[in-house]
Amino acid sequence: MDGMEGNTARMSRLRIPELSRSEKVSLVVPFAVILLAEFLFFDASRSLSQPMFEHVILVHAANIVFCIVYPMVTKADSGIFQAFSLISLLRILNIGMPSFTIYTLQWIPLIYIPVILVAAFSLLDEKFDFSMEPGEFPYRAVLEHYWQGLKAGLRNWYFIPIGAGIGMALSMTEYFVLRNQPMVPDYTMGSFVILFIVMFLCIGLGEEMLFRSMLQGRVQTKIGPVAAVIMASILFGMMHSGYANPVYMGYVFLVSLVFGYLYYRTNSLLLITVVHGTINFFLFSIMPYLFG
Q: Using the 8-state DSSP alphabet, how is residue 215 labeled?
């Protein structure tokens, strides 16, 4: 009996529920538009064609407009549209950043901090519903929410060494796929501190809030956890199209499946942020030094 119940539970996770027309549109159209834009970005990064980069910006901008207008007109749930529009915004900001070299590390917070702030506000709005009268913002409830999250993080302190261990292992395999250059100008403590802050608190936290907490978490309510993890991972892999390396994009897709599974099983943003931040920190500092 227990085996039959287990099989039933697994089948329920794989089964995609019936979706309304607006729900299908909210999933399919932004997903397809972002894929189109990232295919264009892949081609632009390979050919270094300035007009192609402009086309990428236009397609992502069109996606943002669609994600704003469609839920306003149809009264559809805006949560998923917010996640898709932030992905397009992240790419537009990324294209506007100077060339990705060791001298532009300081530009990355200017891209990710706005995305983190908007994502945090969206997630809080999802929990507390900010559609209220002026002067009724639930300051105490929000502070209590973060206080409880901090205490939960302290209780789950063991996620930090576990995440760091997973991240170090994945950073080594990722380096042999990408063969990238370091992002630090020298191997001094100051450079490592800056890289740590950028990779953990900007890129790691920002991308995991966006792809896991927002996109995967919200899509999961529509199409189930398995499809949600796959959809978020496809987009996460495609968002690395700027390297113009299909093998690396495929590798990132597989790593994202691991991220998605860990997040689904633990619901811990802390764990996957540590894994992601550790991968990036070692990938762009220690690994090129050891194996370059």
A: I
Rg (CA), the chain: 20
What does the domain layout of the chain look like in residue ranges? Answer: 2-129+139-291
Q: Please tell me what DSSP assigns to residue 105.
A: G
d(CA 13, CA 259): 18
DSSP assignment letter at 245: -
Distance (Å, rounded) from C-alpha 269 to C-alpha 213?
7
Residues 6+ apart with CB under 8 A from 15: 224
pLDDT 10s digits, 13-56: 556 668 888 888 999 999 999 999 999 999 999 988 788 899 99
- The candidate with the shortest Cα–Cα distance to 38, out of 70, 84, 81, 79, is 84
What crossing angle do the helices spanning 108-128 and 79-95 adopt, rounded to 10°? 170
**Integer CA distances (angstroms), 138 to 25, 79, 126, 133, 206, in order:** 33, 20, 13, 11, 24
Q: Which residues of 37-56 are buried (b: 16+ CB within 10 A; e: fewer)?
A: bbebbbebbeeeeeebbebb
DSSP 241: G
Q: Is the pLDDT of residue 206 over 70?
A: yes
Q: What are phi and psi of 186, to 5 degrees?
A: -155, 170
**Do residues 37 and 57 touch, judged by C-beta distance below 8 A?**
no
Global pTM reads 0.89
Nearest to 184 by CA among 105, 243, 107, 109: 105
Helix (H) or strand (E) holding 7: helix 2-14
Determine the distance from the C-alpha atom of residue 9 to the mean position of all C-alpha atoms in its chain, rounded to a whole number.
Answer: 28
